[in-house]
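If your schedule permits, I should be very grateful for your opinion on a structural question. Please examine both parts with care and let me know of anything in them that strikes you as inconsistent. The record follows directly beneath this note:
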Amino acid sequence: MSTSKFSDGDLQQIRENEQTVAKIEQEIESFKQGFEFAELAKPCTPGDGITIVPESDQSELVDLSSQAISAGRALKFVPASGAATRMFKQLHTLHDNYETISDPDNAADGALKVDIDALAMLSDNLDSFGFFQSLSDTLARAGEDLNALVREGNYLPVLGGILSTTGLNYSNLPKGLIEFHAYPDHSRTAFEEHLVEAKGYACDGAGVARVHYTISADYEHAITNHLEAVRSRHELAETKFEISFSFQKRSTNTVAVDLENRPFRDADGRLLFRPGGHGALIENLNDLQGDIIFIKNIDNIVPDRLKPDTFLHKKILSGILVRLQSEIFDYLAELESGDIDDARVGQIFDAVCDRLPIICPAEIADGCREGRIAYLLSKLNRPIRVCGMVRNEGEPGGGPFWVRHVDGSTTIQIVESCQVDMNVEAQAEIFSSATHFNPVDLVCGVRDYQGNSFDLRKYVDPMTGFISRKSLGGKELQAMELPGLWNGAMADWITLFVEVPISTFNPVKSVFDLLQKEHQPG
C-alpha cells in the first residue's frame, strides 16, 4: 500500500500518531502473514531451566545486592497505566442487573448464581475493603448513610458509590489509585504501597529510593497529586523518594484492520490506532537509561506485615544479577583483550554453557577458536534479566519454557498461552505440564561491561506479537499487540529463571481478591 492509498486526512492522522506509512504497511503485512506460534521444546523445571537458590547462598546474595543498591544503581519500574475496569467487572454486573439479582425469587436460578453469590460476598465483607471509609465519606457527602444502607440491604446506592463518576469512580480510575489496604489510621492505594516497598529493597546509601511509573496521561494530575500527598507518610530524615513518570508512546500504537486486512475505519471514516500492549513499554524502559531495574506489576502488592518476604527475595534476585554481571563482564574484558590463549577460551566457553541456559550449536562447540570467541561475544554482550518464578497453582498466564527457534537454537522464554498452537496436542501437553508460573517479578541489568546503556530495542523478537478479534460500533476488527514486555520484548536478553515462594505473588485481578487474607490487616 503506497502513500497514494491514504487520503490527506489519513496522512495527517498518521503524523499525529507519530507513525509512518512504512510502519503501517509493515503492520498490515503482519496481519496478512500472521505470527508464528512458539515451538515449545519442554517446560522449564528445577535444575533444567529454573534455578533453586540454596539457603546457604542467600546471605551472600543479599550482601551483593545491598552493595550495588547502596551505590545508587537501582530503580523500580512499575507499569501502572491500566484502568481498573476489569477489576470491577463483577460489581458492574451487579449494578446493571441489581433488581433481578437482588430479587429473592431468583435465588434458585442457576444462571444468576454467580452474581447472587457475588452480591452476598459484597454484603458480608463490605467493611473489609480498604476503600470502605472513603466509600462511607463519599456517600455521606451525597446525603446517604452507608451503615443504614447496609442494614436495609440496599446495595444499589453502594455500588453506585464505588463505580460512578459521582462516587469513587473506581471503574474508570487507574488500578494504582484504588485503595487496596486498610491500616489503623489510613488506607493505601497500590501506588502508595509500591513506594513503601521500594524503601525496603531499592534505597541507596544516601537514603534515596527511585521509582518510575508508566501512567495514563489522562490521570497524570490525579496521580501526581496523590503521590505528593502520601509520600510524606514514608519520607523520614533518612529516606527520600525520586518519583518519575512516563506515558506509552503514540509511536508504539498499532493500526487496526478489518477482517479482510484493510485499514479499519470508524464511523467518521478515520483510521483506528490502538495501544500496542505492555510490550510497547520497552521504549519507556529504554529511555530511562537505567542500570539495575526492578519490574513488578502495579496490582501485585501486599500490606506491611507480609512485605519482609518480598524484600528478601527481591534482594536475592538482584544479588544473582549482580554476581552474574560480574562474571560476564570479566569474561567479556578477557575475550576482547586479545591476550587470551586457547585453553582459557575453552574454560570460559565451558563455564558459560554450564552457567547459562544456552544450548550451543555443535558446529560452534566443536569449531575453531575464532568461532568460539565470536559466539561468546555475541551471547554475552547483551542485557540480562533474572526472573522470579512461582510454583504453578492454576493461575492463568504465561510460564517458563525451553523454546526452539527457526535457526535451530533453543532458549528459555516466558510464553503466554496465546503464543502456543493448542490445536497441536503435543504443544498443548507441554504447555499444560508447566510446573511454574510467571508472576512478573524481574530484576534487569541494562548496561554493558563498559558501563554503556544497551539499546533495548535491538533485543526484541518482532515475530512474537499476536492478533486478536475486537469490535467497534458493531463492526468486527483485528487488533495487533506488540511482543509482550517480558515475552518477545526481552526475548534476546540473557535470561535466568529463579524459583521464588508463592508468598511473593498476590495479584489483584478482581475487587474480591482484596478479601483474601494476604490483603487483609491480619
Q: What stands out?
A: The chain has 17 helices and 19 strands. The radius of gyration is 25 Å.
